[in-house]
């Protein structure tokens, strides 16, 4: 009966999102705004204090490594106890990170590893719990739509927030401007914490299996072996691109307003692209949509071979924003559909999400180590460009690994588990049905 009800609900709603999905998108959007306001300028802030690529590299490396460890360790808390408290703590610690940078001021560069660790803990807790709640409030029929809207809002935040930050920093005295944007991020993250109380309490069940991911990867023919490789390739690219491109724009222009304008332009392109791809993409189009994405993302790096300048960086940024949704949406939706392929997988959703995030973190760590190794040998712009091209090609490997798995459809295990969870949840929390938790 529960399965039939779930199927009927899907037939009626199609790709529609319910109130819980919308609330989670709001929390995600507020977190994205806070990150866009201040996170975009953290590398530039550290660079102004001390012009050292290695210093910023160590900040990012400590963030990646600790974030991955937190995913693995906190998996037990999220599975067996309260995932909503983990989500809230992640948002609170993100606020603590910006508060710490604000208090340290220009001397923050002396503490890059400790503040990187704090940021890693915050991001690890937030994204682990967010991804699990995301899995629970979405279904295969609306997951592409959710990812499209979330990407759309993230791009919208990227349009407005960095431009506003750049304007504030250049209009006010430099340090005063940074104080204003870091404080603004604190306030926005506080609002995000309040919004999480409108997400319903989600019942915990089962026992956390520490080495579940390792067991999955040891099985021949297990699709997780291929998806783990694809996720690592995505992380390898992200590990270098996430901080180096924005920092390079600042170094090329020496102007925060220019960096804000850059973020505005590429985020506007991403907003349009996420909207179009989110409406067009369906499971049967993922394979060739992702192929087009990885090839065009690689081609977008070519302008940098003609010299690193604001113009070529802008061409690269526009190309990346235009084609990234073709890669991100298929691989993300396919991974979560794989988690929901049957009841047994759904019961291990926390372990699978931990595996996904550890693979992403491992890729980012490898990318950052490669960056630090190259930097220790040469600071030639040509060497940096070739490094960007090399890591930028990695998603092609991910497509080859997963190309025959992108059109998978779950065998209703996720629907059955969702129906069961709703039945248990309604029975346990009937008295609190109308109240946020």
Automatic annotation (TrEMBL):
Coiled coil: none annotated. InterPro entries: MFS, MFS_trans_sf, Sugar_transport-like. GO terms for molecular function: transmembrane transporter activity. It is a multi-pass membrane protein. It comes from the Bacteria. Residues 411-437 are annotated as: Disordered. The chain crosses the membrane at residues 21-47, 53-74, 86-105, 111-134, 146-169, 181-199, 235-253, 259-277, 289-308, 314-340, 352-374, 380-401. It is found in: Cell membrane. SUPFAM superfamilies: MFS general substrate transporter. PANTHER family: INTEGRAL MEMBRANE TRANSPORT PROTEIN-RELATED, MAJOR FACILITATOR SUPERFAMILY (MFS) PROFILE DOMAIN-CONTAINING PROTEIN. This is Major facilitator superfamily MFS_1. It comes from Paenibacillus curdlanolyticus YK9.
